[in-house]
């Protein structure tokens, strides 16, 4: 295992400490590092709280700040945060207008966020499940929540910042999730520090179609394909899942899994954009980068969100977080 | 070789096309993809032009836009751009106030930018050489220009945007370069697409201290060390190179080489910050991410820039590029 670490037991704490020190103008850590919270709260605003296993950085901590999340609860690597983390976050960042949890659809996360929601007052939840690769998976009943979660957090975060009420935010989050589909491919496996070896074996000439962000199996193992062939299959899967109703404006998001450089991501974006145009998509907004990762896995996911004018305006609204920043 | 590509011959063109399509609001490509240029020019502003071999993305194209570069000339992977690329860029983005070339110190780059500077009128140059690892290297007489180049481009770019004249910009660029030192370490080698195999061999338990951004050898090959031990050695090398005069405010920049995830970079930042504090450094600005890469190499570099008030204000000034954006 080749990683920058001091000890497997302290990797999360040290990484969080570095993150909080580097972005002290935006955020700070809660007691015992239970959550990352926005430094300046906005009274009367619905609090947006997310979280999940670590190892997917910058998701979710990198999206804490003006126009996006109020708090993010980091679990251990690929392990759900515990309900007391979410409860502590609710207490710290709630300002009386209620809380919305944004939860990726994995059994552990859903269970723990549910438990916290029951114990707190005035909490609603949006569960993301944008991954079209498989219906059920290693840690999931139903579809997995993957990179599309970023899109939900950005758009709902902007609406919350503008003063939208809790029930409307929940409806908006569900609507953005419905308008969002993703699928990923892996060229290599990531390595969980505590395991010390790659999560899955994969041959030199192989790739995994439909991989999950924890290295879960996807649709199939296959020989490594060209970027165009990969994009063709992934985009067809996404367009097919939309029932072919992909004509119109959209956000195209090509996301790296942590071990793939920018040059390859832009090449994949170029291929995916051409493929989606054949499906009638007009790409009006784009995001390319490693935002929802799987440790050091080489690979990428492609996400398409069908946009209406409201969603586009909310996507464009100012955001000031460690990993996404524009308009301010 | 596991990469997202269609053909080795078209990787650069396709990646540039994707990049230009994703960021069409900021930039566009010149004819024959000779350069990436800022879409909106500012008449009367000195034009800042950089460039170099591809494979280091987002450097330099990702820094084209308001408050940073007016154009960037991409060579083939790890190969200098040709003088006609720089001449075409000068012609496209010059507005009569002169041009400043920002050039990393590699023999090919220096020769080709020199040639272009001689053929054009009103061009001055800043050559960056922030890498303290070795005095001469595979492609270099003197020190290599590495991640500190970003800092020079940001600070000089802000001053140019504010209307500073050519000679003063050249002096400022030299001053920022003098105030900046870097050193890198590699855990794995990157793979140049045309070569199809890793640039250098490195054992499972080994690392390279002082590696260059093309995988050039550094100071020594050694057993893989802890993050703290790596930071201690790198920070001591940088502080020593400053002659121990590191008391005062500074920018700490931890840069990933393309194959290292965010979690490890923040952990290294945490270690490096503590080490520099022992050298009397007060970290007042931070940057953590993969900005000056070496294809898919796992590793990172640490850069320290000693700041004065002017440099700090210019660092904070608004910037709107594909890879760095704040204040607008």
UniProtKB/TrEMBL annotation, chains A, B:
The gene is dhaK. Residues 7-326 form the DhaK domain. The keyword Transferase applies. Coiled coil: none annotated. GO terms for biological process: glycerol catabolic process. The keyword Kinase applies. GO terms for molecular function: glycerone kinase activity. It comes from the Bacteria. This is PTS-dependent dihydroxyacetone kinase, dihydroxyacetone binding subunit dhaK.
């Amino acid at each position: 295992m080749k990683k920058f670490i001091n000890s497997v037991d302290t990797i999360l704490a040290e990484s969080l400490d570095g993150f909080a020190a580097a972005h002290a103008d935006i955020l700070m850590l809660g007691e015992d590092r239970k959550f990352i919270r926005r430094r300046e709260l906005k009274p009367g605003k619905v609090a947006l709280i997310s979280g999940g296993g670590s190892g997917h950085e910058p998701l979710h901590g990198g999206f804490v700040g003006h126009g996006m999340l109020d708090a993010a609860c980091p679990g251990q690597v690929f392990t759900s945060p515990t309900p007391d983390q979410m409860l502590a976050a609710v207490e710290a960042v709630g300002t009386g207008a209620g809380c919305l949890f944004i939860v990726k659809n994995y059994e552990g996360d859903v269970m723990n966020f549910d438990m916290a929601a029951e114990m707190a007052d005035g909490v609603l939840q949006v569960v993301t499940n944008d991954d079209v690769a498989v219906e059920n998976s290693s840690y999931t009943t139903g579809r997995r929540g993957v990179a599309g979660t970023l899109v939900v957090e950005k758009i709902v975060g902007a609406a919350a910042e503008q003063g939208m009420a809790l029930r409307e935010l929940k409806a908006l989050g569900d609507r953005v999730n419905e308008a969002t589909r993703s699928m990923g491919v892996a060229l290599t496996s990531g390595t969980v520090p505590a395991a010390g070896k790659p999560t899955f074996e994969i041959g030199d000439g192989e790739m995994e179609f439909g991989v999950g962000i924890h290295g879960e199996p996807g649709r199939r193992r296959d020989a490594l394909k060209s970027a165009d062939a990969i994009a063709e299959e992934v985009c067809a899967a996404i367009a097919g899942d939309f029932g072919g109703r992909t004509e119109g404006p959209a956000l195209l998001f090509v996301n790296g899994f942590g071990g793939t450089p920018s040059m390859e991501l832009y090449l994949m974006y170029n291929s995916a954009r051409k493929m989606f145009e054949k499906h009638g998509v007009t790409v009006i907004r784009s995001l390319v980068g490693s935002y929802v990762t799987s440790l050091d896995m080489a690979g990428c996911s492609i996400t398409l969100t069908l946009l209406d004018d409201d969603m586009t305006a909310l996507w464009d609204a100012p955001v000031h977080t460690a990993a996404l920043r524009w308009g301010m």
